[in-house]
Structures are given as structure tokens and as C-alpha cells.
Write a structure and sequence with these properties.
Chains A, B: This is Putative mono-oxygenase ydhR. 2 copies of one chain form a homodimer. By secondary structure, chain A is an alpha+beta fold. Chain A is built from 5 helices and 4 strands, in the order E-H-H-E-E-H-E-H-H. Chain A has helices spanning about 15-20, 25-30, 60-75, 90-95, 100-110; strands at about 5-10, 35-45, 50-55, 80-90.
């Protein structure tokens, strides 16, 4: 079942364009993570937060990524990491124009099996 | 600037199909909220959490919605509500196939002005 992972953590920057430039390599590597469909990169300079919202093909993939990512952040000195894994309610999300074409297709395929 | 709002809160259900049926009217009303682009409905029956990830046209719209939504949830008896507002790093999100066509278009228009 397609699964959403939301992560945020204390982060002092860089933010914005400087962050984009510095983390291109990391972003490219994330495309190789098992089961990843997409990631939205989130940042809040005022609150000093970094993070992301990820869509994965399954809860197992989301959980494996969260475990790896939290360990990587801790190695980088990040202390407070919040990670939540959620199922997606597709009928309600579809009403609200959520961009879940891949997720919806997966569910339909599953229902047909 | 397009802004992401992530909300989650303690929730005892209903989840899944029962939630879809019960909250169709609420979902339809959310399409009328000022500045909303989309919402992904999130739920976690194991951890007893409800929530959502929203894309808004601006931080002001996201903040206004969070204030209204938190008050509505408190009236319904929900005690623990977590809401975070984030800017989106578009260059990095684009590398990771994030579904942000609307957001990207807004940024391009803004840069041209």
C-alpha cells in the first residue's frame, strides 16, 4: 500500500538556493532509494527546521528509509528528529485534488488482484 | 510563495473506508478553503493519528487554515494537534519527481514579475 513518510528535524541551514546547490548530489542519490515514488523537500528558516514529505510504494520501504535517514542525520549531529508514517485515504484525497496518480494506480491494481 | 502545511493529531477513528464515507462532505468543503491547491489525507490506525498534508498558494493562507482547523479540532475534543508550515525547496523537489506542477508554475511567474 502506498505510504506517506513525513520527517522534520532541527536544522540551522543552509536554506533556499544555497541548500539547493549544496544538496543536489544527495537529492540525486535519493532517487535510488528502494520504493521511493517522490520527495517534497521542506524547510523553515524561521523555525530552523529541515525535512521532507515522501511517497513510498509500501510501509516497509518507508520504515526502512526512516531508519536509515534518522541514523544519517544523527551522524551529522542532528538531535531532534521527528518521523511519522501514514496511510493515505485515497477517496478523500482524490476529492481534494491530491497528486497521487501513481498511488491510485497501485491501489486499483491491488484491488483487481 | 507556495507553502506546505503538515498536520497530525490524536484520533481514534473511524479510519479507512468508514472514514472516507463519513467525511466526504468535509472533504468537499475543504476545496472551498482560500488558497488551497490540494490535500493528501493521512491516517495511522495503529498509532491512532489523523492528519493531512496540504499545499497552499501562500504562507498566509496556510497559517489561516491551520488556525481555523486547530480550533475546529479542539471543539471536537481533540487535545494534541501538531501543525507545521514549511517552504518548499523546488529545485531539490524537482529532482525527486515531486508533484508540484502548480507550485513550480507559480514560482516561475513570480520570478518573471
Amino acid at each position: 500500500m502506498t505510504t506517506l513518510l513525513q520527517v522534520d528535524f532541527d536544522f540551522t541551514g543552509p536554506f533556499g538556493k544555497e541548500m539547493s546547490t549544496m544538496l543536489i548530489g544527495l537529492a540525486e542519490s535519493i532517487n535510488n532509494e528502494p520504493g521511493l515514488i517522490w520527495k517534497i523537500w521542506t524547510e523553515n528558516p524561521k523555525e530552523q527546521l529541515g525535512g521532507g514529505v515522501y511517497l513510498f510504494e509500501s510501509e516497509a520501504y518507508a520504515q526502512a528509509y526512516l531508519t536509515m535517514h534518522a541514523a544519517r542525520l544523527k551522524e551529522m549531529g542532528v538531535k531532534e528528529i521527528r518521523g511519522n508514517i501514514f496511510e493515505i485515504n485515497l477517496p478523500l484525497s482524490t476529492i481534494n485534488n491530491a497528486p497521487l496518480d501513481n498511488a491510485a494506480r497501485n491501489e486499483v491494481i491491488k484491488d483487481e488482484q
